[in-house]
Amino acid sequence: MNEILLTILAYLIGSIPTSVWVSKSMFGLDIRDYGSGNAGATNTFRVLGSKWGSFVMIVDVAKGAIATSLYILIPFYLTNELARTNFMIILGLAAVVGHIFPIWANFKGGKGVATLLGMALAIQPIVALLCLLVFAITLLSTRFVSLSSMLAGIAFMVLILFIFNEKETMYRMFAIIVALMVIVTHQKNIGRLLKGTENKVPIFKNRDKR
């Protein structure tokens, strides 16, 4: 029962629509009505600029990390590493689902990449930081958040399966799911990248014109 309640709580934490609340409270608009129509950090960078895009990204990463760390509320998971990892994956995925389908924003949210990063940071920080490095290098060199997110997701899978050679079956499956999830949620972006019409994000601007 405690696990079920914490999983629900993880979903509710993931459901916090950071970009929607920021856009409405600070600018009097709904971020989903502008840019790509997505309620995530990428669209916030594009519509509101790097300052608020960075804020939204940090909060969304924190959502994933906090939700995934809820296992500490059950003493059993503090001493059982295998069970802890499996439960952390469940909690993290609940938060990601919450971010994509937020109950606080009519189930219309973002793509979950930042929340996935927070989840990975909580479970295996070194792998997460390496993926963040891949993301940052790609973003700085191309300014395509979509491409950066997909490459980071693929890097996560490669690191878990081949570099760190993680033995836990559920974790290996999770790594594959992450890569597939990031690619599936970016199908439209892939199409625009191939056509050369994908929008670049303003990295050093306070706010773009809407």
What does this structure look like?
The protein is mainly alpha-helical. The chain has one domain. It contains eleven helices and no strands. The chain has helices at 2-14, 18-27, 41-48, 50-68, 76-79, 81-100, 113-123, 125-142, 145-163, 169-184, 187-195. Helix 1 runs parallel beside helix 6 (81-100), helix 4 (50-68) packs antiparallel against helix 6 and helix 9 (145-163) packs antiparallel against helix 10. The mean pLDDT is 91.
From the structure above, extract its key features:
single chain, 210 residues, mainly alpha, 0% strand
Q: What is the CA-based Rg, rounded?
A: 17 Å
Number of domains: 1
Contiguous low-pLDDT stretches (5 residues minimum) are: none
> What is the structural class?
mainly alpha
Shape: globular
Number of strand elements: 0
Tally of DSSP helical segments: 11
Mean pLDDT: 91
Helix content: over 70%
